[in-house]
Amino acid sequence: MLHKALRHCCYASTPTPLFEFQGGSDDSLTEAHPTHLPRRVFTDKEIAVKRSPVPGNHAPVRTLLRGEPDSVTAAGQTHLYTYDFQQPQKAPVERRLVWEECTPEDCGYNITVVHERQEPDQALVCGTDGRETLCCDVNFTAQSPTCTPSDKLGAIESGIRSFIVKEGEPSALVESAESADLYITNSGSQEYVGIHKFGKNRVGPASHNKEQHYVGLMLSRGRDPPLQDKVFAFYKEKNRGTDSRDDMWLPYVTRVCMADIGGRKNNMQLTWTSQMSARLFCGDPGTRQHFSELVDVAVVQADHWQDTRVYGLFRNEWHMTAICVYTIKDFDNIFANSAFEGQTSAYSKDRPRECVEDSRMLSPETLRKIAETSEMVEWVHPVNKSGPLLFNHHNYTHIYADSSQHKRNNPHTVLFLTLNNGAIHKVLQTESRSFFIAEYHPFNHRAHISSIILHPSSRKLYVTTRSELVQLDVENCAKYGDCEECVLARDPYCGWNLTHCSTATNDTLQDLTTGNHTICPVLLQTASRYSTDARAPERVKPIALPPNSKYFLSCPMLSKHAEYTWRQGKDTTLCRLKEQECLLLIDSMSPEQVGTHTCESEELGFKKVLVQYELQLESRAAIGRLSSPLVWVCLVAALIKS
């Protein structure tokens, strides 16, 4: 009798993991599991994925996470949408934003900026019609949300009116008890590209002819004294060099003082006097490999402002990507000590580096020096002069960082990296190394991810495209199996609680540094444990095959960091890799193949029997049942693919 497992040679394929093989034979996993491969791959059918359509096929301008993990408000171009992921099959509640200053007939404003306010349920919303920008206060929980003027936001509203805000520009809102300031970037090659401040004091960049594209903006506050609080922005600048060997893009960090109100009348008036810029270096000086195009940044705030970390996602001309990490202390050291481009050391010493109480009181000579240049000679290198945390051929498009403190005071960060095909990598970053935990496929098709955001307490990741808003559970601990596999997963969100793999607590077993599975309690097993210490499957699967027939035995390949072996008696065979399965080809069924065929995995010394087949010779009377053309087509197709 033919076993139903024959269907394995004719199944609909799942999304193919983006493996990078480091040489060796195609059919050998011993050469194909470097640690920068995701250890596990999860499709949308294997983990909890909830999806809801995005009306109008336009990715949300901003996604706001409410207190409950399943409640999300998204700001579109003209509407606010409320999603309830407890009932994802329901369309989102759609509410059109009403602009108080104009009637619906002549209101052509599209939302470009959304920031949650200090007041509950309130948000600063800005929109542009291509000629001017309106900013106002909105209660985003109201049934008919209305954009109304606000006393606290009044200075922002009046100052930004003639400024055209582009969608997607990084921005930050700073509120005090009496007033508020909005910092926002302006990318491109036109006039006044850079950081702009709207509020009590309107300040902007000096005019220049450089093409700059901004990818991030962050506040550095909590300094002593607060006068030294700063704003940092990150951008890539078009290289104006004429040598064809030069990089097309150059990565930069720039900073301004929050207290800066511009220079004197007719001398840098309303222009930053505190701006300084420095090149970012990401690469390996030893191999002369570097990454010059800044793609995205993620910020992890620290208790002490000096230790706040910036994870920069870079790309090079061969579309390899890398991640380098910097601290605010690294930036401050360069801005405090480096000479300025084209200037002497004596000149550089005379120029102020600290933020001043009133920048309008700077002398004309000082303002003249400031106007000449703001770029530093020295570059900012990653923390401790280290190289990239990781680099590979994956085409990453976004980076998101979730930081927490391990129970044994071992600091770590979980990075989520989106790929250009719609997949997402989950990476553990410790002080010493990177570990690829998993690859998620929230879509069963290629998709362009526009943004990701994590609800920290529920560990639900919200992923947006032009057509969908998806909720993805990235705390999928139950998928890791028994204790050893739970520990080997090295997932900060998961630990072994003596009965199953569950949400990590102070009482669960974990080893994020090495994945040492020997910390698991020893289980007393007899019949279910072999002398090789490999746990056996629940049952052996019998298969009867005709003499001289061809057949594939299939074994699930769970961990990409494990080695997989087929065993029959004393004979061993390395797996043939086909997507997420290991295949063993029975080229011609004969008495030699009769018996038990066992597929076993081994990872860091932990062995496990995944599947066992008992092959038997079928009588010739049943050979006719193998004559179906479809069966032979499937077998030949599987053989060719392998």
UniProtKB/TrEMBL annotation:
<dbReference type="InterPro" id="IPR001627">
    <property type="entry name" value="Semap_dom"/>
</dbReference>
<dbReference type="InterPro" id="IPR013783">
    <property type="entry name" value="Ig-like_fold"/>
</dbReference>
<dbReference type="GO" id="GO:0030215">
    <property type="term" value="F:semaphorin receptor binding"/>
</dbReference>
<dbReference type="GO" id="GO:0001755">
    <property type="term" value="P:neural crest cell migration"/>
</dbReference>
<dbReference type="GO" id="GO:0005886">
    <property type="term" value="C:plasma membrane"/>
</dbReference>
<feature type="domain" description="Sema">
    <location>
        <begin position="1"/>
        <end position="474"/>
    </location>
</feature>
<dbReference type="Pfam" id="PF01403">
    <property type="entry name" value="Sema"/>
</dbReference>
<protein>
    <recommendedName>
        <fullName>Sema domain-containing protein</fullName>
    </recommendedName>
</protein>
<dbReference type="InterPro" id="IPR002165">
    <property type="entry name" value="Plexin_repeat"/>
</dbReference>
<dbReference type="GO" id="GO:0007411">
    <property type="term" value="P:axon guidance"/>
</dbReference>
<feature type="domain" description="Ig-like">
    <location>
        <begin position="521"/>
        <end position="616"/>
    </location>
</feature>
<dbReference type="InterPro" id="IPR036352">
    <property type="entry name" value="Semap_dom_sf"/>
</dbReference>
<keyword id="KW-0472">Membrane</keyword>
<dbReference type="GO" id="GO:0043931">
    <property type="term" value="P:ossification involved in bone maturation"/>
</dbReference>
<keyword id="KW-0325">Glycoprotein</keyword>
<keyword id="KW-1015">Disulfide bond</keyword>
<dbReference type="GO" id="GO:0000122">
    <property type="term" value="P:negative regulation of transcription by RNA polymerase II"/>
</dbReference>
<dbReference type="InterPro" id="IPR015943">
    <property type="entry name" value="WD40/YVTN_repeat-like_dom_sf"/>
</dbReference>
<dbReference type="GO" id="GO:0071526">
    <property type="term" value="P:semaphorin-plexin signaling pathway"/>
</dbReference>
<dbReference type="GO" id="GO:0005615">
    <property type="term" value="C:extracellular space"/>
</dbReference>
<dbReference type="InterPro" id="IPR027231">
    <property type="entry name" value="Semaphorin"/>
</dbReference>
<dbReference type="Pfam" id="PF01437">
    <property type="entry name" value="PSI"/>
</dbReference>
<dbReference type="GO" id="GO:0045499">
    <property type="term" value="F:chemorepellent activity"/>
</dbReference>
<dbReference type="GO" id="GO:0030335">
    <property type="term" value="P:positive regulation of cell migration"/>
</dbReference>
<comment type="similarity">
    <text>Belongs to the semaphorin family.</text>
</comment>
<dbReference type="InterPro" id="IPR007110">
    <property type="entry name" value="Ig-like_dom"/>
</dbReference>
<dbReference type="InterPro" id="IPR016201">
    <property type="entry name" value="PSI"/>
</dbReference>
